[in-house]
């Protein structure tokens, strides 16, 4: 927005601020940056649906009415998609269209219409509520946040069934859009509106709207409780998507402060984005391969656009979610083939399905466990469900002829379990050879180091595999005996705990002795506070969510190996996690203040 437009947008708003009290509200920073502007409030109410019965001879007509509404909504999305440039946002809208073709959703709705003689609106609402309940109870944030996407899509279908038309949002340039939630289509429309920021009452960092906000580089804060009750149309709002908060009706001094911070933030963004394609090579020549963690294909373009040197963790378990049948060997093959061709010439590391615990699936009968994080999950489950495991492995091996593919086994507890996993890979290879099916013979195979047992015996793993990858999310959980999904003990989740640092060092040294690369793919990799410590401990590769890559690569290019090793050595000598945090934060904040403002979790590492 130019200076004249900005002045006009702010004109008179301070008089309005005098009429209401300043209010500061917390949320989650979903898309980094600072936005300032008048509020454009989107307050939608859920469509009211009546439960009526239809005559039996009206069943087929009612089903056709359902399909017509679904087609109309898919076409609406197609219109929005056609207005956008190519990129990740188009892929997300395509995913929305696929949800509206989901056979499980459609078949279950048709069944209710046929068996209960329910009208299409009630049948669709009933099925949707059942799906939303499952998503809402999931431990994984990714699945909980899919609920908001589904809710908006179904609202549009219901409006089509009822002959209503949802208002298309059309915010003025320079405004801040405030809503209880926004659909990806809503967010995509802002591409042409040049809004200053987004604020929602629900959602999280992995919701599709958050992903699209990052893709479109719109500062966004989500999960702000009761935001619609606190904001009136036209209220001046500061969207502080660095710290994860908003300020409603700020003071003139605050506006001036955040205008300066926004300009500094934008200048830094432009600088590091210009360099995103450069390799992460330190000032003294250390090349660190920086890869992306992805779970769905929509994230692939974003990863490459942010400078990822391939994929260090492809979470294949998401293929098993929200469906009634197991993915076939052919589906695994086609998915992996697409990803490999898109990433060539870089390597893609496919983790075999990490199901169980916080990633449940209705495709398997899993007993309720008192402690599922330590129960039947990951490789243990794959070895039990051998046919399902072999189908995935055969698909991966077949896809390996299309690009450099690696297979990674999750949560390997010991050498015996590793041997069983390697035997399964060999069995899948023999099955393809016997059938005369083309497949890759020479692929890298690695393991995730996620338990203290695996870290302490990494030497034994390093003699048998091609790479090791440290999964710090689970390693911290298991080492410190805390449930990372339990908010009551979240304060004990300490990446800088001396035990964690020593285990990372142990694994890195085991890899170095055996000439096996060691990567780290947990959330620690994406946090700029920890870059020096991890590399100083000997980690050779980092894999992270795509939006973190430019900041981490820029830190590496601005650093020297000796400085990183020195910090790691100092941290290893302290007695507690709090001491280590203070030391690391002070060092990194002094050297990389803007990087920490861009890359830390909200409230952590900021000024």
UniProtKB/TrEMBL annotation:
Q: Provide the leader sequence positions.
A: none
Reactions it catalyzes: L-histidyl-[protein] + phosphoenolpyruvate = N(pros)-phospho-L-histidyl-[protein] + pyruvate
Q: What biological-process GO terms show up in the record?
A: phosphoenolpyruvate-dependent sugar phosphotransferase system
Start and end of every PEP-utilising enzyme C-terminal domain?
Answer: 272-559
Q: Which InterPro entries match?
A: PEP-util_enz_mobile_dom (IPR008279), PEP-utilizing_PTS_enzyme (IPR050499), PEP_util_AS (IPR018274), PEP_util_C (IPR000121), PEP_util_CS (IPR023151), Phosphohistidine_dom_sf (IPR036637), PTS_EI (IPR024692), PTS_EI-like (IPR006318)
Where located? Cytoplasm
Query: Where do the Phosphotransferase system enzyme I N-terminal domain residues begin and end?
Result: 27-146
GO CC terms in record: cytoplasm
Q: Which EC class heads this enzyme's classification?
A: transferase
Active site per database record: 208 (tele-phosphohistidine intermediate), 521 (proton donor)
Q: Which residues bind Mg(2+)?
A: 450, 474
The molecular function terms of the Gene Ontology recorded here are: kinase activity; metal ion binding; phosphoenolpyruvate-protein phosphotransferase activity
Family the UniProt entry places it in: Belongs to the PEP-utilizing enzyme family.
What does the protein in this record do? Answer: General (non sugar-specific) component of the phosphoenolpyruvate-dependent sugar phosphotransferase system (sugar PTS). This major carbohydrate active-transport system catalyzes the phosphorylation of incoming sugar substrates concomitantly with their translocation across the cell membrane. Enzyme I transfers the phosphoryl group from phosphoenolpyruvate (PEP) to the phosphoryl carrier protein (HPr).
Q: What is this protein called?
A: Phosphoenolpyruvate-protein phosphotransferase
């Amino acid at each position: 927005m130019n200076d004249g437009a900005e002045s006009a947008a702010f004109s008179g708003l301070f008089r309005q601020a005098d009429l209401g009290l300043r209010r500061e509200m917390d949320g989650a920073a979903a898309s980094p940056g600072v936005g300032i502007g008048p509020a454009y409030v989107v307050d939608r109410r859920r469509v009211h649906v009546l439960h009526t019965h239809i005559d039996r001879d009206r069943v087929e007509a009612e089903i056709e009415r359902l399909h017509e509404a679904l087609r109309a909504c898919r076409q609406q999305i197609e219109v929005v998609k056609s207005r956008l440039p190519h990129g990740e946002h188009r892929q997300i809208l395509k995913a929305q269209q696929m949800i509206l073709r989901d056979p499980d959703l459609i078949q279950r709705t048709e069944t209710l219409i046929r068996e209960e003689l329910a009208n299409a609106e009630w049948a669709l609402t009933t099925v949707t509520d059942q799906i939303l309940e499952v998503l809402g109870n999931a431990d994984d944030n990714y699945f909980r946040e899919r609920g908001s996407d589904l809710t908006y899509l179904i609202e549009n279908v219901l409006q089509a069934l009822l002959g209503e038309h949802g208002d298309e949002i059309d915010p003025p340039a320079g405004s801040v859009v405030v809503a209880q939630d926004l659909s990806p289509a809503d967010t995509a429309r802002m591409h042409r509106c040049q809004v200053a920021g987004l604020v929602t009452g629900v959602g999280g960092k992995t919701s599709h709207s958050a992903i699209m906000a990052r893709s479109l580089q719109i500062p966004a804060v989500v999960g702000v409780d009761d935001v619609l009750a606190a904001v009136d149309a036209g209220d001046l709002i500061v969207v502080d998507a660095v710290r994860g908060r908003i300020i409603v009706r700020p003071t003139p001094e605050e506006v001036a402060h955040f205008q300066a911070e926004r300009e500094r933030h934008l200048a830094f963004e432009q600088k590091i984005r210009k360099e995103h394609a450069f390799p992460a090579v330190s000032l003294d020549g250390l090349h660190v391969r920086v890869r992306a963690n992805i779970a769905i294909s929509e994230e692939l373009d974003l990863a490459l656009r942010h400078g990822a040197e391939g994929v260090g963790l492809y979470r294949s378990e998401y293929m098993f979610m929200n469906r009634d049948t197991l993915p076939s060997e052919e589906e695994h093959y086609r998915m992996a083939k697409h990803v490999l061709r898109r990433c060539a010439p870089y390597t893609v590391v496919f983790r075999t399905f990490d199901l169980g615990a916080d990633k449940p699936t209705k495709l398997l009968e899993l007993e309720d466990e008192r402690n599922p994080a330590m129960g039947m999950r990951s490789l243990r489950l794959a070895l039990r469900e051998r046919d399902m495991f072999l189908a995935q492995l055969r698909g991966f091996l077949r896809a390996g002829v299309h690009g450099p593919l690696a297979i990674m086994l999750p949560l390997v507890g010991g050498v015996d379990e590793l041997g069983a996993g390697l035997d399964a890979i060999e069995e899948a290879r023999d099955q393809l050879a016997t059938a005369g099916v083309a497949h890759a013979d020479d692929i890298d195979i690695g393991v995730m180091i996620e338990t203290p047992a695996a870290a302490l015996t990494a030497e034994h793993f390093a003699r048998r595999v091609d790479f090791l990858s440290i999964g710090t999310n689970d390693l911290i959980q298991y080492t410190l005996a805390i449930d990372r999904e339990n908010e009551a003990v979240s304060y004990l989740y300490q990446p800088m705990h001396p035990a964690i640092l020593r285990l990372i060092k142990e694994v890195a040294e085991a890899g170095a002795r055996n000439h096996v690369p060691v990567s780290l793919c947990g959330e620690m990799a994406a946090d700029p506070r920890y870059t020096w410590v991890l590399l100083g401990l000997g980690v050779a590769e980092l894999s992270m969510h795509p939006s973190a890559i430019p900041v981490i690569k820029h830190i590496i290019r601005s650093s020297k190996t000796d400085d990183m090793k020195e910090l790691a050595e100092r941290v290893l000598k302290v007695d507690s996690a709090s001491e280590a945090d203070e030391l690391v934060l002070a060092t990194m904040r002094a050297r990389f203040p803007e990087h920490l403002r861009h890359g830390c979790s909200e409230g952590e590492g900021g000024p």
